[in-house]
Amino acid sequence: MVQLGANRYGKAEVRVVHVDRGAAVDGGDVITDRNVSSSLSGDVAGCYLTGDNTNVLATDTQKNTVYAFSKKLGHVEPERLGLALAEHFVATQGPITRARVAIEQYGWTRIEAQPNSFHRSGDYVRTTTVIHDETAGISVVSGLRDLTVLNTTNSEFHGFPRDEYTTLAETKDRMLATSVEASWRYRSVDVDWADAFAEAKAALLSTFAETYSYSLQQTLYAIGTRIIESIPDICEVRLAMPNKHHFLVDLDPFGLTNDSEVYYAADRPYGLIEGTVLADDAGPEGLAWN
Amino acid sequence: MVQLGANRYGKAEVRVVHVDRGAAVDGGDVITDRNVSSSLSGDVAGCYLTGDNTNVLATDTQKNTVYAFSKKLGHVEPERLGLALAEHFVATQGPITRARVAIEQYGWTRIEAQPNSFHRSGDYVRTTTVIHDETAGISVVSGLRDLTVLNTTNSEFHGFPRDEYTTLAETKDRMLATSVEASWRYRSVDVDWADAFAEAKAALLSTFAETYSYSLQQTLYAIGTRIIESIPDICEVRLAMPNKHHFLVDLDPFGLTNDSEVYYAADRPYGLIEGTVLADDAGPEGLAWN
Amino acid sequence: MVQLGANRYGKAEVRVVHVDRGAAVDGGDVITDRNVSSSLSGDVAGCYLTGDNTNVLATDTQKNTVYAFSKKLGHVEPERLGLALAEHFVATQGPITRARVAIEQYGWTRIEAQPNSFHRSGDYVRTTTVIHDETAGISVVSGLRDLTVLNTTNSEFHGFPRDEYTTLAETKDRMLATSVEASWRYRSVDVDWADAFAEAKAALLSTFAETYSYSLQQTLYAIGTRIIESIPDICEVRLAMPNKHHFLVDLDPFGLTNDSEVYYAADRPYGLIEGTVLADDAGPEGLAWN
Amino acid sequence: MVQLGANRYGKAEVRVVHVDRGAAVDGGDVITDRNVSSSLSGDVAGCYLTGDNTNVLATDTQKNTVYAFSKKLGHVEPERLGLALAEHFVATQGPITRARVAIEQYGWTRIEAQPNSFHRSGDYVRTTTVIHDETAGISVVSGLRDLTVLNTTNSEFHGFPRDEYTTLAETKDRMLATSVEASWRYRSVDVDWADAFAEAKAALLSTFAETYSYSLQQTLYAIGTRIIESIPDICEVRLAMPNKHHFLVDLDPFGLTNDSEVYYAADRPYGLIEGTVLADDAGPEGLAWN
Asked: Is residue D268 less than 8 Å (CB to CB) from chain B?
């Protein structure tokens, strides 16, 4: 005999763009470009077992709700939209006891001196995931992904164990590059979301640059530590950092010397470092990372 | 003050192709095309805190180990390669207490009547993830992804609640399509991996086809149930099934009738159904899904 | 002063799926899954110069036309849909003197014994491009892309020149793999499209397998030759074949011998061979490749 | 009988990163991140016909040459690297009569106040293609791709013809967004490449913003015109501009008014406008666009 285990359903990737006309300080427009995914859980076993949709708010309705709330809330921070949507689903749908709203936000920059014109800024994608659970409460995890950073020096790698499959040479100077995916858990929902994001991103960038690194793990830990120490509202940081290897090209066969000048950027395989940094007084994570 | 939380590091996406020459029944070659990712955990905090790599088996060494084991084991099922690699890392590296090996395997088909020639079969990607933990033991989760299936009929969707944001019409006949990502947990490591995979895939396809569906959730549950009932070695199935919406095109403005003939395939947004089916006597999942 | 040069505009990537219910020999359904892109040229300079849309059939209308013709024509070969659409645009829009219709068609396979159920077959994408020009006439170029093939042996590469930047060793045995993009030009529009496609694909696969290769160029030429010789309706073949390098892994450091067994599949860079094979009596290409 | 037609072969996507240490005005590093593809043509028929590689400079050698020239030339503009490489291949390989070098260049920005640290700037990719032909001479076509721009207003679309398949409503105000792919042909190789690129990009952005648009075609032509008028070294501009549709969401069913605030960003299908703007005195294009 079998039973239904953990489950959720929803509408993924609702691409909604909001224009707040004339809302900029100089009278220009403000645009907000988001990709919103919602998923719901609760008393919906009937749907799985017999196709009874009585308790299943349609994913199409979830999509409509994203549009309606985008209109109502305007150009707020993504965390506020996520909180409002998640609260709405749980509050208005009796059988729904948990809502998860994940938002990606894409950057746009005003074209110089133009009130209505923008170009996309592709340096990173801002993210947030709100979980609202009737029992476990509300959590907010925000972050960013696809922020690619590179240090041309100040990175070593040596002292690692050598077994029968080890061929890697030790190095006292290498290029270090990674594409950061960072998520940080907030202690509460009473946060200045814009400030917290800006400070976390700044801490991430400056720490990556300032850390003399003996391993990418060390850099990861330094970044997580700095974010927690800089933003009291954050109690936990999770980082996934692929080591985007840049290998020195051997120019000797061509009678040339490579004084740490010419590298090739490898695609695969790549190192992948994943780690968590926690404040000592971080509360329980609950469902935050679900 | 902060502390290090959960972490792992490894080499991702080692693309290794193995040829077993003349190993086919008819004397042709057998090729095995894999993408192997390993990650290790254990007593490696020193690396994060101070850049001390004493206990850190280099990701480059992990890559080499994948190559060496591919030679030693040949064209075994991916589960066996994963089990051997994970066991090796934990057994030979004192500080490493847990290894995770995730493998994707790509299909190739012999070109007719040719012993050495193949074309890629892109219908799905076979997957497996082995976790070997000194304390929690060994787990194997296998499955597939990117298996896209479609029913032209036998799907309804109605009876769902209507709130102020609901505009969706009920339907007694729709096209149902999804791209299945399925993972199943085995009860042990003493399994005929090839048979189990073949049977699980067959169960998935036939159940998708045979289920008269009142919701994609119902189809998901039916698939999970059938897999567990068909393969005694499997105790849990997790499925993620995006609803790849196909909408009937309104041909009325052109004086044409659309008798469920012409659909447009939408990209985004899409419904996303995620669910778990468990055998009643499934053992604890432990770290299997980490 | 400036002037308008070559231009075209249209609707790209109309994803249309057609179901012909009960049309299979055994009473099952037949589905046709296409991605249709149309583009038009003609007396449309006013639109570019002053925004005068008088002669500009809206791209939205082009999309609707694709849907309507998909209904009217049903599950014909893609060449026939392309021909009908291209003819329609030129015939009905006075200012439009040229139409280009490009179609990608995706494969689906019936799930065994199921009349209404299918799984996607991802081995390759079938393509066709029809150009209908009031002056230059009608051309059809068909083909396929993303057909990945591999020979485990019967490939050498040596005898190439060595300059100051050459480090590559000669080889008498290597693995040869490529992802074929092939396009063939038909002599007329009076062709059995299904047969021609099937024969061209079969010729491609068997020639790739049967050619003992001293360079990927040689394999390319052999494929093009065979297609032209096998299908009298085809007068020209263009092929783009990336050399998907598979390098032997050096296992010596691990005390293992690699008897052409273990390879790693590289991503970038890759060789890229592009070539044309023409029948001696091929007519002028006209606009076929535009 | 068949014959060999147009052909070329080479190494694609050599990912090379160059560091010029301390070369910035403030003593920081300068990095140059490129993806270089070369392809050669000439007296290489023997390779296609019989696998005779005597005249075939190996693609591996081409890759090495890219690395060596990256070292020798340092952080020059991509056009200079392309010119040097293309000239080299034709000048040193007797049988090679034509070389094509295509370069993509990715942007990096110094992390504030850090001499050795960078983050990737993903707003667009800079491109250049150099063709060096023994007979036809040398051409340079440069440009960019993936520059996504958006106007929140100042765009109308009406006055288009209405046939039996037309359902689109006319509009006096819409959002206009596109992802620009632009290529411009230079009159000579004696150009200040950095200045020309900067001015062309600036002209593109400002013209997109300043053009009150009755069709995307009009915007395209205005951009091409402005680039040619602004940079005397440029004689031709080719643009491909997908119409990234943003549709107003109908909020009426929810009792809300959508005052041009909430849009959904559609993926497919999309309009695609492709056009050329030429200076009246542009010289013959020769092989520039091959």
From this structure: yes
